[in-house]
Records
---
Amino acid sequence: MEKQSTWPSRTALAAGVAAGLIAAAAAVVVGPQPIRTADDQPTGSPAVSDVLSQSAPAAAHHLSAFTISDDNVTFGGLGADENDEFEIGSITKTFTAELLQNAIDDGDLTLDTTVGEVIDVGDSPVGTVTLEELANHTSGLPRLGNSSIPRKLGTLFLGSNPYADTTRQDVIDAAAAADLKDRGERHYSNLGFALLGQVIAESQGTSYEQLLNDEILQPLGMSHTYLAVPGSTDSESPRGLLANGRESQPWEMDGDAPAGAIRSTAADMSLYAQHLLDTGIPDFTWVTDRPEGVAWHNGGTGGFKSMLVLDPEAGTAAYVVNDSTAKVDKLGLTLLEETNR
C-alpha cells in the first residue's frame, strides 16, 4: 500500500491561500462608502440629463452622455459634463477594429491574415489564428492572459490595476502558450484583442499608441482623448469608484492597451461616433444582437462603465459613461430609443 503523505495537498494549500486572501479582502470591504447618483447636479440639455436622472441604474455616480440625430449633438450629464474625462474600457476595442479596417482598406492586411504571418510565434497554434477570428472573439484564446486569484481579488476589493505590468511581449507569450478552446465559437477575449492590436501595429512598423494617434485621434480632432499607457495618468486624473465606494486605481496598460486603455470625454466621443455614422461600422467586433440595424459596444474598468450604441440607418447614436461599477448598457439603449422617437 502506498504511504499516505502527511503534507497537505496542493488543493488544500490553494484553498487555504484563497481563504486568506478572501479574509483580507473582506477586511478592506468593511465599512463601504455609499454611492449616490448626482441627479441634483444636471448639466447640459434637459433632454439628455432628464433621461439620465430617470433611468440611471442604482449606484451610478457621475454620468456624462450625448445623443446624435441629424448630425446634431446634444450633451447632458449628472455631476459631469461633456469635457470630463472617463475611462471608456472595452469601447477601445472598436478603435482597434477601426485600425484593422484602415489596414484592410490600404491593402496591408486582410481578415484572413494570420498572426504567424506578422509576428513570430513559432509553431504555436495561435500562429494559424486569423485577424477575423481575433476581431470577432472566435480564436479560442482565453478571456485573460493572467487570471490568477490574487489578481482578481486585488482588482475587485482593492481597486488595483490587473493589467499594470503586462508588456507587449507578455501578451504575445501568453497567446503563444494558450490552448485554443472551442475555436470558432464566440468567447469574449481581452487577450485576443490585445494581440490583435499588437499585430496591427507590428504590420505598420509602429506602436499601437502611435498608430491610434496618427490614424484616429488626430484626424478626428480628439484632442482630449489618449491611451492610458504606464505613467500617463497622475494624481489629478479622474478615479472611478469600486462597488464599496472606494476609489479604483487608473487602468494604465502597455501590452493590453488595444483591448481597453482609452480615456476620453463625451465631447471627443461624439466626434468618433459621428465619424462612424458617416463612414460606416466594420463588419466585425461590434455587437448587433439588438433591434435590427443597431450596433453597440460597452466597456468597463475597475471604476468606470460605458456604452456606445449606433443606428446607422437612422443616423443616430447615443453614448453614456459612469464613474462607478453600475452598468449603463440599458441606459445607453434608452437614450437611443428616446432619440429615435
---
Amino acid sequence: MAVQGARRAAGENRLGDAHAYAGRPVIFNIGEVLAQLTEDFPSVTASKIRFYEEKGLVTPQRTAAGYRQFTESDVERLRFVLALQRDHYLPLKVIRDYLDSIDRGEGPENLPPGVSASIAPRPVNPELAAEMAGRARRLSVEQLRVESGASNELLESLLSFGLIAAEAGHFDDHALRVAKACAALAAHGLEPRHLRPFQAAAEREFGLVERVVSPLASRRDGASQARAAESAREISDLCLSLHSALVQGHIARMDS
C-alpha cells in the first residue's frame, strides 16, 4: 500500500487556482477535506477528523470564529493516518509515533512495507507547541477554577455530586469542560444537584456504547482496541446528535 500524496484533481482545480493566484497557501474547511478523502476512505467523517485533531495527529488552524482551516499538508497527514488504519490496522499510538518522527525530521523506523513517509513535517511554532502541550495538561484545582470561571463552592459541589473527579489531585480537560458548562448553567439557576440526571444519563449512554463495541474491545491486540475506541466515539457523537434533535424538537413546539 502506498500512501497517496496528491490531492483530488477536482478540489485542486476548484480551490487551488484561486489561492495560488493570490500567492497564498490553499486552505480547506472540514467539508472540503471530507470531499477529498471520501472517495478513498468512505468511512471518514467529520467526527473522526475532530477525533484525530483531539489526539494531536492533525492540527488545523482556527479562524477568529473558531472554524477549522486545513492546509494541503493537513490533508496529507489525514491520508497517512487513514491508510495506516485501514490497510494495516495500526493503533493511533503507533501512528502518532510515526508522525512525531516525521515532524522531528527523522525517517520513521519499521513502517509497514510499501508505506511512504513522504509527507511534510508539521511546522513548529510557539503557538502550536502550546496547543499540543495543552492537550495533555493536568490542571490543579486553582487552574480549574480560574479557567472555568467556577467558584470554589461550585467546584466542591461538582465534586460531591460526582460530576467531576480528580486523579492524583489533578483534573483533565474533560473536567474543565464540565466545570465551564456548569458555571454557565449556574447563571440560569441550575445547581449541581439539578444536574445529577446528566451524569446518570451519561453513564447509561456509556453502558450502551460499551455493549456495542465490546466484541472489539475484548480483543487483546492494539488495533482492535483502537478501532473499539474510535467506534465508541462515533456512536457517542450520534447519540448526542439524537439527544439534541429530540430536545430541540420539544423547544420548537413551545413556539407552535
---
Amino acid sequence: MSNAKKIHFAMLPDKYEPLIESLGECRSEESKADRKYKRKQKLKKCRKNFLKVLRAGWNYFVLGVQEFATNYTMPYATSFTVITEMR
C-alpha cells in the first residue's frame, strides 16, 4: 500500500493537564474581536466601493444633462447631426 501514512506517537507525562478550557475562552474572546475587526474592514471596503459607484454615476448623469442641454439649445438640424456623429 503506497498510500499508507506514517503516524508518530509520543508518550505524555502522567502529570500533564491540557488547558483546553482556558484556551477556549481566550480563543472565543480573540475570535470575537477578530471577527468584529474583519467585519469593520469589510464594511469599510464596501462603503468605499459604493461611493466610487455613486461618484461615477453622478459624473455620467451630469455629463448627460449637459449634453441634453447643449442639444436642446441647438437648432433641430444641427442637433440631429451631433447625435448621429456620437453613435
